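User: Batch of two.

Assistant: Item 1 of 2:
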Amino acid sequence: MVKETIVVGCDHAGYDAKRDVMRYLVEQGFDVLDVGCDNATDTVNYPVFAKKLAYAIKDGRAKRGFLFCGSGIGVCIAANRYPWIRACQVYNATIALYTRDHNDANVGCFGGQHMGSLQIQDCVRVFLQTPFSGNPRHLPRLEMISDPNSDF
C-alpha cells in the first residue's frame, strides 16, 4: 500500500508547529514533503512557502497539505492565490471538519503562536480523516469558488 504524502510549509513563526506536525504525521504513517522554512530564527516571508506548497500539490507530489505562520492568516491568504488550492484557516476540530466536509479544502492553515501542539494535532487528525461530503447544497458554492469568472 502506498503511503499518502502530505506537504507542509511554514515561515519562521510557524516553524515549531510545523516540526511537531511533521513528527505526528510520520507517527501516523504518512510521508511528509517539507517545503521549508528550516528554522525559527531566520526571518522569512510566508508567501514563498505557500507558493512552494501550492506547486507541490499542482505537480502531484501531494494532494493535501498544511501551512503554518504566527496566526495562520497570512499563509491562508497567500495559498488561496492559486486556483487549485482551497486553503482554510483551522483553529479547532469542528472547523477542521467543516473545511473538509463542506468546502473540500486541500490545505489547512494554522497559527503556531496561538495554538498548542496537541490542539493542532487534533485538528490535523480531523482534517485528514474527514472526506468531502459531496452534499448537493455545497456543490454550486464550490463551482463558484473554483471559477473566478463565474457570473453568479
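Item 2 of 2:
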Amino acid sequence: MLFDFDGVIVNSMPGHARAWVRIFAEKGLDITEEDVYLHEGRPTVDVAHVFLSRHGLPAEKQHCRALAAHKQAYYLSKPGGVVIFPEIVPIIESVVGRGIAAAVVTGSNDEVVRRTLPKKLRSFFSAFVTADDIKKGKPDPEPWLKAAEKLAVQPKACLVVENAPLGIQAARAAGMRALAITTTLQPEHLQGAEAVARNFDELARLIESRLNGEH
C-alpha cells in the first residue's frame, strides 16, 4: 500500500503553501495557497518552473533550482509548523499489521522526510520514494511505479492514498487504484480517485473495504 506524504501523513501543506506564497511575493507575484495545493506532488523544482513560466519569468533550470532551494530553506526555518495527522497512525499500523507492505511516495526530498517523520513511524514503511529518487515527478507515474518496484509488487496490486489531483493522476497512469482524502482540497478537485474520504474515519473504512475485497 502506498501513501503520499504531505497532506496524508503530515499536516505540512499549509506550511509549504505559505512558503511558496511568501517566496513569490518577494518577486512581486501574487499566488494563492490553493494554487499551490493544485500543484502538490510535483517536485519542488517543477513547482518553481510552473509558477515562473506562468508569470513570464525566466524558468531555466538554474533559476528553478535557486528558487526551490530558497523556498525549502524558508519552509525548514519555521519550526513547529508540521505535525503528523494522528488519525493516520492507526491506519498505517492496521495495514502493516495485516502483513501488507507500505511505502511513502512524495515530491519532497529526503531531507524533508527525515526531518519531519519520527523514527518510530518511519519503521512502519518498507520503502520510500522521494524527489531525490526519480527523474520525473507527479503527474508522471514514475514515483508510484518506483515504489511498486521497491516493494516487489505489481502496480495493479497497489492501493494509493492521496490528497492531490496530480498524485491521483499519476497513480492512475501507473495502473493503480487511488483513494483520496480532503485534507487540502474539496472533493470536486479529487474526482480522479475511485472514492473520496472527507475525514480519516471515512478513509479507514474505505481502506478496510478495499483490503477485504469488497470493492
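The first helix runs from residue 13 to 25.
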